[in-house]
Design a protein that fits this description.
Chain A has 340 residues and is of the alpha/beta class. The first copy, chain A, is built from 14 helices and 12 strands. Chain A is elongated and about 90 Å long. Chain B binds a DNA duplex (30 and 30 nucleotides) through α2 and α4.
Chain lengths: 340, 340
DNA sequence: CCAACGTCCGAAAACGTTTGCGTGTTGAAA
DNA sequence: TTTCAACACGCAAACGTTTTCGGACGTTGG
């Protein structure tokens, strides 16, 4: 076991000073050609690599960005991470991933931990608990210390920083309009209760689309699902007694549950009922029939967030503060669960 | 914007020395009671937190572990990360996640980067390209520098370190035996080319199960898929000309593709053909029919890996080296894609 | 022959900690 | 009054870098 090589050891070995070694390796003109050659050769031979920790301490920057997400076993978040990683790597940054598990305390803990020197900035999506408590002091504090933060997906007006979101309302409208355009006359929606912000927004989009197309809005065709664990049954009950020919589901899960129920009721998708989902995940792509869905473009969101953050990090400190909110457009991915 | 508080600033503010502050905060008996109180009060008021980078440099340990995986948009890997994160956090460690994107170069790059001070050890699953090249010098080098490494899932004998694997052979046997026990007479397999070690092992399990049950092994029923992006078509071709009543797929993707193809060929699952997959992901649970599958228990693997690594990290340096390989048992999850 | 200048290199500070040891002050014992 | 613990605190080194400054030496020009 050979421990890591340091400047000091090279210096001792070659009988020069530490600073000479450092300069030689950086090709400084201060150092004589032959000395440089000797040092470089030695360093290469023994594979010298500067210690990142020491560099971080000296430069007061770590070249790593922290990303805190509510959960990782979740297609959307992994695509976001993937997007962040990609541009971060391009720009020479590392990525630390932490999980809040939707817990406020874990979010605070992780943030505190990473804020003490481990990262130069954050990209994060708020934990469910945090949004319930409406307590964002940990974020404002970190921001006050001059650490850039980018919020994505689950954002909140109270925190003053860059943000990356999708337009849920427009996305939902696209979905419903597609149902309308492909001939659906009676369109239902499977959504969540209103305190889940994205559910609320998507419901709003659904209603707007109907209204703009002079479709009646029938409260009876709106199912707000409370208990995620029992959604299957609720959806079954709902569909049994509704005579719809189009259905918009605010997530993949609801969409596939619905298709299962419909099939059991002897109704075919998309012949009898067209179905559109939200979130373009593994399920949508591989389900049979594959799902027409509103894609959130997680990778692009991640990339945007990373750009925003890195811009802030590499900006001259005297430039004026300004916070952007970039909206990543959703797009409708047409597949087999709708007609045409 | 108020920059981070340091010991030095507290010292200046309170007109004591840096060391006094440090000791006071650690409740050292060297410092007088009243001085301690004063310093602690001040630190608490202004929310002093020691700088992790400085600590890392001083202690020569970072309390973070690096995990490098081939891809993150992949259910299995996310469950592993989740498992690692859980025990890492319990033990006061942070987790850095890096992606190799199945590229050898990126794997080397990430490893080099993190090895230079950023992490105390690694948990990783090899990139496909790395296994093809059979070049593991980057790993052996890191290990030689005294940095503990734990390999999981995609492991390799050439690298001498702790490992966490599942018993692919036994898992595959369980799957095939289940097909046999539910009455299948002619069983095919959808697998990967042999340099993907798990594919190879699962194929082996398939063959062993057949042999132990006195079933003939027909090479013609084995499809080794080379190009993941074109698997759909390959599988379709394969199934069109094989008269099987049981099918074992070495991953979810292949399983659902197969079911799609079968349906298009007018063959029902599980009535005409039973299908078993590998990896218990979102797809398996929600597909129609839901997939009987071999669960890899990724979370448990991650937890095991983390324990192994942290044990090594916190071991006294004089203890003898010894490398363990822990095998996480798979289990068969019975669902609708097989009979009974 | 001496001053001036170039070339090549080393010393030291700094980043923020921790910690072994030295030192000054106090009070009490002799 | 002298001496010596005990107490309370500061100094400085160390972790591995980078970088500014200045020094030593040799060469050149006047």
């Amino acid at each position: 076991m050979r421990p890591k090589l340091t400047l000091k050891q090279i210096a001792r070995e070659l009988d020069v000073s530490i600073s000479t070694v450092s300069k030689a390796l950086k090709d400084s003109p201060e150092i004589g050609e032959d000395t440089k050659q000797k040092i470089k050769a030695f360093a290469k031979l023994y594979n010298y690599k500067p210690n990142n920790i020491a560099l971080s301490l000296k430069n007061r920057k770590t070249k790593t960005i922290g990303i805190i997400i509510p959960e990782i076993v979740h297609y959307f978040f992994t695509t976001v991470i993937s997007g962040v990683e990609q541009v971060a790597n391009e720009k020479g940054y590392n990525v630390i991933v932490c999980l809040s598990n939707n817990s406020f305390d874990r979010e605070v803990l992780n943030l505190d931990l990473l804020a003490n020197g481990s990262t130069d900035g954050f990209i994060l999506s708020l934990a469910k608990e945090t949004m319930q408590k409406e307590d964002y002091h940990h974020l404002t504090e970190v921001i006050n210390q001059g650490m850039p933060v980018v919020l994505f997906d689950r954002v909140v007006d109270e925190v003053h920083c860059d943000k990356v979101i999708i337009d849920d309302i427009i996305g939902a409208k696209k979905a419903v309009e597609h149902l309308i355009n492909t001939g659906c006359k009676k369109i239902g929606i499977l959504t969540t209760v209103d305190y889940v912000s994205v559910g609320k927004l998507r419901t709003k989009g659904y209603i707007e689309a109907l209204e703009e197309n002079a479709y009646p809005v029938d409260e009876d065709l709106i199912l707000k699902i409370e208990d995620m664990d029992n959604s299957e049954k609720e959806i079954g009950e709902f569909l049994k007694t509704r005579d719809i020919d189009g259905l918009f589901a605010v997530n993949e899960q609801f969409a596939v549950s619905a298709i299962g129920s419909l099939r059991r009721l002897g109704r075919n998708v998309p012949e009898d009922v067209s179905v559109v989902g939200f979130t373009d995940g593994e399920l949508s792509k591989n389900f049979i029939p594959s799902l027409t869905t509103v894609s959130q473009h997680g990778t692009r969101m991640g990339a945007e967030a990373a750009h925003l953050l890195i811009d802030k990090l590499e900006r001259k400190p005297d430039e004026v503060e300004s916070y952007k909110t970039v909206i990543v457009e959703t797009s409708l991915v047409r597949r087999e669960s709708t007609k045409n």
